[in-house]
Structure formats: C-alpha cells, structure tokens
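Fold this sequence, please.
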Amino acid sequence: MAAHFDHSLRDTSSDDALFVQNKCKEWGIPCVVKKMDVKEFCRENGQNIEEGARNLRYEFLFDTAKNKGASSVLVAHHADDQVETVLMHFIRGAGLSGLKGMKYTSYLEKFSKTIPIIRPLLDIFRKQIEMYCEENQVPFVVDNTNSDVTYFRNRLRHNLIPEMETYNPRFRETLIRTTHSLQADHDLINDMVSNEWKKVIIEIQARFIKLNLAELRSQPKGLRWNVIIKAVKILRPDIRDFDQSVLIRLDELITGDIHGKRIDLINHLESYLGSDALLICESGYKEPVKLFPQYNQTHQSLGFPLEMDFDNGWQLIGDTSDNNEKMEYISSLLSNYEAWLDYDSIEGDVILRNVLPGDRIQPLGNDGHHTKVSDIFINHRIPKDARQDYPIFCDTREIIWLPGIMISEKCKLSLATKKILHLKFTKV
C-alpha cells in the first residue's frame, strides 16, 4: 500500500501526485492520494509552513494506515535528512533528545501510540539513492521547492553543510556516526528516567502533570532535566525541540524556594511551584485544589451531628459528646484535619466560612496572643490558589479551628471540659 500527500505548495504538485498514482498502477500497488491547501491551513491555524505540512502529512499517513489495517508507516527519510535534522536541533538549542536525531523505528504518539514509523533508508545518503535509481532505471521526480532557501532546512542543505565540508570533507558521515553514539546514550538515560519517573510522579491529567518536589530536588541536574522533558512531552507530544534556556529557568524555579511562583515554558505551557509539588500545566490553568478542603459558599451556622460533602473530594463530619474522661484516648487520635474542642468554650453558634481580610486566630499554646491567618497560610505553605476558598470555623467572636493547621487556644480541652465537639475532614 502506497500513500501520497499533495501539499499544494507548488504548481507541479498535482503532476507529482499523478506520477505516483500511475507508477503504483503500473506496478500493481494500491495507492491512496490526498490533496490539501497547506498554506491556507497554516494561515488559518497560525502555524508555520514546515510544521503545518509535517502535521498534516503524518495525520494523513497514520489515518491511512489505521483505515487499511497497516502494521507500520514507512517513510523515505535518508541520511542527508538526518544530518539536516540534527543541525536544525543543534542551532535551536535542543538537548540530547534532539541531537540524537531520528531513529529507524519510533512512535509519534501524537498520531498513533500503536503504529510505529519506520525509516529503512536512514543510513543511506541521497546520492546513493539517486545512483541506484539511475542504474536500475527507476523513474523519480524532484521537488523543486528543495532549492528554495527561504526554508530553514534548505538553507542548511545548500549553504551551511557545504561550508562545514570545507572543514571536514566527511562531515555528513561523521555526524551520522555521532547520532548512533548519542542514541545509545539517550536509550540509557531513558531507562534511568523511567525508573525515576515512578518515584517523582504524583498525578497525570489531560491539562497538567504534578511532580514530587522533594524527589526532583534530590536528583542530579541531568536526570531532573530529562524527567521534566518527559513530563512536557506527555502534555505536548508534538514538541520536537526543547530550548535549553527553558530547562535552566525551570531548574531555577525547582531549586529555589518561591512557592506560588509561575513561569512560562513553551507551547502554551507554564509551571507552578507549590509547597511540595511542581505543577506543569496549560497556560492559565488553575489546578483543582485537592490537597486542601475548599468551601466557596456563604457562611453558615452548623448543627450537630453533621455530615457535609465538599465539591473537591472532602467530607466533614461533626458531633458532640460528654467528656467522660476521654482525654487520654483523644490525645492519641489528634491529626491536622481533626479537631477536639471544648464545646462549652464556644460562644454562640459554630460558623463555617471563608477567610476574611484581617482574620486572626489565637494559636494553641499562645495564651492571649493572636496571629494573622494570612501569615499562618504563608508559614504553613498553603498555596495561593487554595487560600481564597479555605474553610475556617469560628464562633460569634473568633476563629476556633483552621483545618489542617491548628485549633484555637481558647477551645482546647482541659480537665474541666464537660462536653466535646469533634470535627473531622476526610478525603472521599
């Protein structure tokens, strides 16, 4: 089965498509041809011609392979294409994943995760292919846009590579051997990254990936960078070049300690530094805060017993009971998201609301001293995105509990406590 994509980028493109169809018919090979106005498509979608043509071409090839039940897609990339590709990546500042060049067999996950792309001519130079065609009388046509130096790749082909060959006449062969070495190194590093990935990944969703910050910081820089590249390519499978300057900026964010800071990455991605995680996400995306209970309704008075579900996967239960000398038992159950309070010390109703400007709490152990809730959030590294809808509990006078952080000194249990209020948050 043969497949040909007509990009409509030159006047003779239809002639080339007809040439392919006629030869396939002559040789008894089934053939599928598709024609698109690539230039118009790129204009409407804000893509450059080279990238847009590549995307449309591969989309067609893999769709054809799926429809026809093909096991793979074979393309005619040759050694000169490899040389040009590696040089393009080098000039753009790519790392090892770009400098290793194309492989004989790989998967372009943007187009298919199950059908491989195979490049059987990758170590054969163009001149060798042309000589074979001439010796065996195999007809071919030449794409006249290959000589158009307005395209970056063509400038490399016609200007830079011949200049490099004045320094080393076997420059192309040398670069091909280098790609073989770099591919071996890349495979080794990929194995290491796969092992480390299991330790560092927290959550993967369509619009974001969350990575363990402590684990990232413990990694050597090279391994850390490759883990980041893996994360970005999961979100953006079509990314081929990864500018090292992006990695440097991101590494400064990871190794710094400015929680809540966001930086732009590439392809409409950004990164956000939380207290214990690094979030790589689509630009402008605000992560649903699952690490903390969130409450975004009007304040309400609570009655007990109580069972309340929160929108982001948390549940609150509450009840009251007589003390009956439960103090020792209760002290063994204390946790950040569980509060045991002296019910009789609470003035009026127990109220659930969000934080207000100027809110203060009397921390447990600080008799008479009140601290700003905003400062407590900063000290306990509560992300900015979680603060606005953070639930707090108060009575008619002051805050009695900040879930996950502290209870008020005012409501602590004592030997004089007669009635206990028990509040507990759990993830459901």
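Residues 100 and 179 are 5 Å apart (CA to CA). The chain has 14 helices and 21 strands.
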